[in-house]
């Protein structure tokens, strides 16, 4: 799944007692214990982000670009470019072009929905000690406590982890010939999944660039307004962060409450959002549930 590895933010459980200071962009960064997500105030996103120093909570997290980050992003970028060129030589015109465009549109939707499901899972289940996903779980949940920190990350730092996952996927696409529509779908899905964290970062910026603002207004990238609706206690909706087009449908149909009910029925695990707002459990399990 292309959403594995979506970046490093902060943590909900915190790194107890760690005191570390690093310098970047004239900011002092302290690793401190993070408050429980439920204690985060629900002020508007732009106010929440305004003029605050970055705060790191996840052990090993940092704001500087490291060589492995630059290498993974450049590697994924070069493979993505090679795949795009390869695809363009196969598309041709007429029917081929139409199916390729269909694949791109489907990939755009799928990447957005996938980003929401992945985000929902990491926001609500597991801890920093969860195998494989522990670092990302800390990062996603901690992002609620200090959402402004992501704006202090450069491109390489921000998307290096998903880029690592994208490298073998682009390589496989280059290695195997597929129908144009399928290849366009996969290429779009993986590319947008790798870039999702950057789109997410832009939605937190006080002053995104003019082209980004235009793409947000056109509905092609997740906007500050739409993503701001996620940053409200109990963080129970608006999980999609590519362009957010799937948010309304998923929330209106109570897709995530149904998933939470299914997880509860199968495993007995309850999501964090139920702790923050017990009425969500009632909503997920039915009015008669307690
Ligand atoms: Zn979240
Ligand atoms: Zn956010």
Automatic annotation (TrEMBL):
Keywords: Membrane, Transmembrane, Transmembrane helix. Residues 108-274 form the Lipid desaturase domain. It is a multi-pass membrane protein. One of its GO terms (cellular component) is membrane. InterPro entries: Lipid_desat. Its main location: membrane. Signal peptide: none annotated. It is found in: Membrane. Transmembrane segments: none annotated. Belongs to the fatty acid desaturase CarF family. This is Lipid desaturase domain-containing protein.
């Amino acid at each position: 799944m292309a959403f594995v590895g979506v970046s490093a933010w902060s943590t909900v459980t915190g790194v107890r007692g760690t005191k570390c200071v690093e310098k970047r962009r004239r900011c002092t960064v302290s690793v401190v214990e993070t408050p429980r997500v439920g204690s985060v105030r629900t002020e508007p996103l732009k106010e929440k982000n305004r003029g605050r120093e970055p705060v790191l909570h996840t052990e090993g997290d940092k704001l500087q670009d490291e060589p492995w980050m630059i290498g993974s992003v450049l590697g994924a970028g070069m493979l993505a470019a090679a795949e795009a060129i390869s695809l363009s030589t196969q598309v041709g015109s007429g029917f081929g072009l139409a199916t390729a465009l269909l694949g791109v549109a489907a990939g755009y939707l799928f990447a957005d929905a996938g980003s929401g499901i992945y985000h929902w899972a990491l926001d609500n289940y597991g801890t920093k000690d969860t195998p494989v996903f522990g670092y990302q779980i800390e990062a996603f949940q901690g992002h609620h406590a200090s959402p402004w920190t992501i704006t202090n990350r450069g491109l390489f730092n921000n998307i290096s982890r998903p880029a690592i996952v994208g490298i073998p996927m682009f390589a496989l696409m280059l290695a195997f010939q597929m129908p144009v529509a399928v290849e366009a779908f996969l290429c779009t899905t993986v590319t947008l999944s790798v870039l999702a964290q950057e789109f997410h970062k832009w939605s937190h910026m006080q002053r995104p660039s003019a082209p980004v603002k235009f793409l947000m207004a056109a509905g092609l990238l997740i906007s500050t307004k739409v993503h701001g609706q996620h940053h409200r206690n109990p963080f129970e909706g608006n999980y999609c962060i590519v362009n957010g087009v799937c948010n309304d449908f998923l929330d209106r149909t109570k897709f995530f409450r149904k998933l939470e009910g299914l997880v509860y029925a199968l495993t007995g695990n309850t999501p964090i959002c139920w702790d923050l707002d017990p009425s969500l459990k009632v909503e997920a399990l039915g009015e008669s549930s307690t």
